[in-house]
Here is the input.
Amino acid sequence: MIAFKDREDFQLHLLKDIYQRLYEAYGPQGWWPAESWFEIVVGAVLTQNTTWRNVEKAIDNLKKSGVLDPQKMLEISEEDLAQLIRPAGFWRVKSKRLKRLLAKLSEYDFDFEKTKNGLTREELLAVNGIGPETADSILLYAFDRPYFVVDNYTRRILNRLGLLSDEASYVEIQRVFHSVIEDVHTMKEFHALIVEHAKRTCKKNDPRCDSCVLKDICRCSGFMNTPFENPTS
Here is the structure.
């Protein structure tokens, strides 16, 4: 069910406990919901600054128009693409980003194996509009590459649990997960479980602490029994 590196330290113990609690509460997530690697790539761009429900509407438009294909999407105009993805918001900005990303992917002939084995994180980050979260979402979910995705949900939950400060950088947070998680499957499940917990329980403005499976280890819940202490300190 879960594969962590063989390290018996405080960080491992707490993250493993969090994972197991979330897994028992919500079950396997099987994220990312898509029919192809390219749909995941497109979804990773469309989900920027919007809800998944809006992304689904935009994806549905692309499917109905027959352009949820890298070559066909490359060939249509930027404006036509923008209108199709309008439900996802910031459609003209995202249309430009998709076009730039398509240009990069075309260097690998839109071939899955070539892209999976050749495309680097640095190349993705060099595409204007593709930041660390989007790049890592593409690498992890579309190409099974071991890059844990750090989003606002991750920051919110770990901050409330007292595991990181508000100033912690993307790299610092990602390094914590990389130091203990061994395989891609667990990275996907852990990230998806964090997102599910944040949406259903650990909400931004109205957290449901009374029903939270992490309330006894969360400093913000009011239900914390005994603060976790690093046993090696």
In short: Confidence is low (pLDDT under 50) at residues 227-233. Residues 157 and 163 are 9 Å apart (CA to CA). The chain is about 55% helix and 0% strand. The longest helix spans residues 10-26.
